[in-house]
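Trying the structure run again after the queue cleared.
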Amino acid sequence: MRARLPGLTRSNRDGWHSEDDFFGRTEPGCTVLRTHILEAVQETTRLLSPDFDFAANRALCQGWINVNPPGAFNGPHDHSGFALSGVYYASVPPEGHSGAIEFLDPRANANAYMIEGAACFNRKFIITPKPGNLLVFPSYLTHWVQPNGDSTDRITVAFNIRYLKQSDPVPVID
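Done. Tokens:
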């Protein structure tokens, strides 16, 4: 895909971002991964809202592929307009923090009065992923991906989900 398509520029810097069509792709690998992503999103939703009525709602899904070659990164951003976002790590550089995702605390002055050693007061939280990891997080969290300092590409599938009532019209996604 990367060889055939120019890609989009969003938060990516020096990396490639596919169209937002992952959930409509029909390649076997995409359909299998899509199933795993949707299962993880449902599990996350159940943990956050045990009484959530899946029958009364439908998921609006948006997904894309990122390829970050050496030196590429994703600048700070969030995924406004969605409830949950996430990323599947297909290929991750083997060493260090190359391509680690860093979440920034959106609360102003959250650490003005803190308790030493309490993680809930940290201003940032870093996850160094491994290949095969699937991460789901609230879409409002500002995050960025650290530069790829390795000689191999970092390849991920990222996604956004929001729930709509079955009776609501399907909105156009920007």
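The CA atoms of residues 43 and 50 lie 10 Å apart. Worth checking whether this holds up in the mutant runs.
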